[in-house]
Structure to design on (232 residues):
């Protein structure tokens, strides 16, 4: 996960990047926990961290893995000394509606690259092409798509969401995306979980009340033909 508006994002990292080397050391066969420790250690010591990465699908489809560690073939990115102004001024924890409309001379692509969510559920935007219809609509790298044209698709399969985006591009030439950056998405998930928990608790309480009401009414009817009124 590459967090929105982070130094990692400003430095060019994307979601689904596969780490090949850390500060020149090959880590392709190193356990994820150790990789995290190496990165955290460098961060805590305020040292520079140099990562050699490639997209996950490229790594999986490359037969000769050793070629991927050839630095001469790599494009170099560096984190800026100061964070970009658009990162600093961006409002966190706010979901956004972005409407993408293709122009007559831009009818081939919205200008986004996507990656599946965990276990193939949900869809992230990993790259927004500069000056594309998507960029002009306000989409950003690492945005999570929550709704498409008003329909909640957050828990849909990644490939199903991709097909809906493709269909909207081909048929309508436009699409409305309700998206969240990584911070806003966490808040959104937490709030929906709380709503579900509260709803579940209230449902169980209501069910118990109905059962008690039904039992009491039956007993009272058997005794004197009158129904007892319960106020909740």
């Amino acid at each position: 996960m590459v967090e929105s508006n982070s130094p990692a994002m400003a430095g060019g990292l994307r979601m689904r990047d596969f780490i090949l080397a850390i500060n020149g050391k090959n880590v392709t066969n190193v356990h994820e926990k150790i990789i995290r420790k190496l990165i955290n250690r460098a961060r805590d010591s305020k040292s520079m961290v140099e990562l050699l990465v490639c997209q996950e699908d490229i790594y999986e489809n490359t037969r000769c893995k050793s070629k991927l560690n050839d630095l001469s073939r790599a494009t170099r990115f560096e984190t800026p000394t100061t964070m970009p102004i658009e990162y600093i001024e961006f409002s966190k924890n706010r979901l956004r509606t972005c409407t993408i409309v293709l122009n007559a001379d831009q009818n081939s692509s919205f200008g986004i690259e996507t990656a599946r969510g965990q276990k193939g559920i949900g869809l992230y935007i990993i790259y927004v092409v500069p000056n594309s219809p998507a960029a002009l609509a306000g989409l950003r790298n690492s945005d999570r798509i929550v709704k498409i044209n008003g329909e909640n698709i957050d828990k849909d399969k990644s490939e199903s969401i991709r097909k809906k985006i493709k269909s909207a591009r081909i048929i309508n030439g436009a699409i409305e995306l309700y998206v969240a950056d990584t911070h806003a998405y966490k808040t959104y998930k937490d709030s929906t979980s709380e709503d579900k928990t509260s709803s579940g608790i209230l449902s169980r309480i209501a069910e118990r009340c109905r059962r008690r009401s039904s039992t009491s009414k039956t007993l009272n009817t058997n005794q004197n033909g009158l129904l007892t009124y319960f106020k909740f």
Observations:
- The chain has two domains: 7-85, 91-183.
- Residues 91-183 form a domain with the Pdz3 Domain fold (CATH 2.30.42.10).
